[in-house]
Fold these 2 entries.
Entry 1:
Amino acid sequence: MANNRLSDLLHILVYIQMHQNQKLTSDLIASSLNTNPSLARRMMGQLRKADLLETTQGSATPKLTKDPKDITVFDVYLATCPDSPLLKVDHNTSKECQVGNAIPGVLNKYYLDIQSAAEAKMRHVTIQDLINDVEMSIRHHLMVAEQ
């Protein structure tokens, strides 16, 4: 089953940077994620632990610790504490079946290639890239709505 934690952490960083001159409570950030403030605070804690986000207790002014062009999706991916690869091979297959016996090793080889390619791509996409695309999407939706 897919994990959306990376998506949520990226969302938080983009949201904070795009609203950097505003008071940003965990309630407000949670509402953008469509989740509860407690979960938003825990996710922000992950970002703090990864040294990607700076917060001050009692102050609703979270800030990115680096310029958005210097934070990559891979940096945020590492903040999710990935304890398993993106794709997981099912090793609980029949050893009595030739396919069941062979498929885990075969898939593992391809999955490692996919993992490497995904991580390489994540190293080239920055928070600033995401902000630029979000801003463009917002402008596009506003133009469509005005028509």
Note: The mean pLDDT is 93.
Entry 2:
Amino acid sequence: MALPGEFTLASRGPKKPSRTDGRRPPAPASYPVRTEEDLLTVRHAVRAATVEVGFGLVDQTRVVTAASELARNAYVHGGGGTVTLEYPRDPRGRRGLRLVVKDEGPGIADLDAALTDGFTTGSGLGHGLGGARRLMDEFSVRTGPGEGTEVVVTRWTVR
């Protein structure tokens, strides 16, 4: 019972373990990014994967937002590509969700500029690549003129 001026929050009970606790993580899955509808499919797949891994709502939103930005970049700037979902585990037992976003477009001519907030080559706000980097725990880009682009990002559960 709370004293005057105190309050308690109701609990819905203990947090349920994720579906991947105690069993093998799901196999990697790839999704094409060729149409606007594919962008929605990627968002839904990533949302489901974040639940599968056991992320809370805030981390689910971070990962889905990053995935959406990266998939849109592959679609708009790379002429389409693929998004692959992987389920790594680190030596400490943390579960993660890794997104590998590839396109075969012209590549990013100036990666440093592209990672700068406000940089845009189109009508966007210029937060895509840099925003995705901030939302995820790990971030890497492999790109070059005429080589296409591969962005690999990972978010880890808290242990």
Note: The helical segments are 36-53, 57-76, 111-114, 128-135.
